[in-house]
Structures are given as structure tokens and as C-alpha cells.
Amino acid sequence: MEKELVKHIVESLVEYPDQIDIHVIEGEKSTILELRVAESDLGKVIGKHGRIAKAIRALLSASASRTGRRVSLEILD
């Protein structure tokens, strides 16, 4: 569910949505989402001073709190 949420948000931000790659790493009590986008779209996903990335992480945290799991987002370049 979290993967689809991130994909939906990021698709609306980037110029090349076909180059979005989200790798999910499941842990015992947490999940890590590794996000890769086109190099030219990296700034759009991170935002000024990391504001957009912070907002995406806040939405993820709120979504995951219902299941009692911890979800973190790593934006890879």
C-alpha cells in the first residue's frame, strides 16, 4: 500500500514517470522504500531544503501508523 502511495505522489511531480523505480525492503517491524527517479527529476522529488521529501515521508508515516509498522523512504541518486 505504501509503495502505491509513493508512486502516485511521485508520478505527479516528475517529468519522466516511466523511470520511477521503488524497491521495497521488508523488515520485522519496519519497511524501507528505496526510490529512484531520473537524474533530472531528483530535485523535483526532494524539493527546496527537502520540503517535498519531508512531506512525502510524513504522509507515509501517517499511512503506516494504521498498521503499526514503521516505514521509511530513501531517495537514491
From TrEMBL:
Identification of the protein by name: RNA-binding protein KhpA
Functional summary from the UniProt entry: A probable RNA chaperone. Forms a complex with KhpB which binds to cellular RNA and controls its expression. Plays a role in peptidoglycan (PG) homeostasis and cell length regulation.
Keywords from the named record: Cell shape, Cell wall biogenesis/degradation, Chaperone, Cytoplasm, RNA-binding
Localization annotation: Cytoplasm
Pfam family, one: KH_KhpA-B
CDD domains per UniProt: KH-II_YlqC-like
HAMAP family: KhpA (MF_00088)
Family to which this protein belongs: Belongs to the KhpA RNA-binding protein family.
Alphabetical list of InterPro entries matching this protein: KH_dom-like_a/b, KH_sf_prok-type, KhpA
Highest classification ranks of the organism: Bacteria, Pseudomonadati, Spirochaetota, Spirochaetia, Spirochaetales
Species name: Entomospira culicis
Residues annotated as signal peptide: none
Record-level GO BP terms: cell wall organization; peptidoglycan biosynthetic process; regulation of cell shape
The keyword RNA-binding belongs to this UniProt entry's keyword annotation: yes
